[in-house]
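Anyone have tokens for General odorant-binding protein 99a? Sequence:
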Amino acid sequence: MKYFIFTVLLAAMVYTDHDHWQIQTAENLQSYREVCVAEHGITPEQIAKYKSWNFPDDDKTHSYINCIFKKMGLFDDATGFNVDHLVLQLGQNQNKDEVKAKIEKCAEKNENNDSPAVWTYRGMKCFIGENLPLVQTSLKKSS
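Reply: yep, here.
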């Protein structure tokens, strides 16, 4: 369950118009996780680490997190974090302005010109370090 909750934050699907984007569910996340595990050769040992909130600073983890964020529509390799989508995903039943301020602290503009995967990883680490309760409550069940 922690893995599902965490990875909802690790979101990203190919950029779509704000009007067409929807809050992602546990079922969406499971589907994206399976695709990203296969695409990036994530091992059962790595999955076990992720489930215990241990996200090593390595290339495979960076790529996996980037994949999840993109599949969920929360990150684009060219433009970075989609703050509006993150606010909708993480700010359910919360004050949107307060949530946006928290997200903007972590959704930086990649002034170091790191790869998109490193950029996503860095933002994710900030999000879970600063906003874990938002992450934990952000995943809605589909009806």
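The radius of gyration is 14 Å.
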